[in-house]
Design goal:
This protein has about 70 residues and is of the alpha/beta class. Helices cover about 35% and strands about 15% of the residues. It contains 3 helices and 3 strands. The protein has helices at about 10-15, 25-30, 45-55; strands spanning about 20-25, 40, 60-65. It has a 3-stranded parallel β-sheet with strand order 2-1-3, with helices on one face. The longest helix is centred in the first third of the chain and has 9 residues, at about 10-15. The radius of gyration is 12 Å and the shape is globular. The termini are far apart. The mean pLDDT is about 90.
């Protein structure tokens, strides 16, 4: 089940507890800057890549740059 998390402290707690962090912007943007420890899976490939690259039994946090 997907849940929107906007609180940085909550994200940090989830990561500290072992959540997988995934950046979904194009590779060039990921290479330029990303959160330490984040994996890169391009949004357009998320459906095909996530099942083979992520642990189904561990929470996943998917993020991208938000201009708001």
């Amino acid at each position: 089940m997907a849940t929107r998390v906007t609180d940085r402290e909550r994200v940090q707690r989830l990561v500290d507890d072992g959540a997988q962090l995934v950046e979904v912007l194009p590779r060039a943007e990921y290479e330029h800057e990303h959160i330490a420890g984040a994996r890169h899976i391009w949004l357009r490939k998320l459906d095909t890549e996530a099942p083979r690259r992520l642990d189904r039994n561990t929470p996943v946090i998917v993020y991208c740059h938000d201009t708001l």
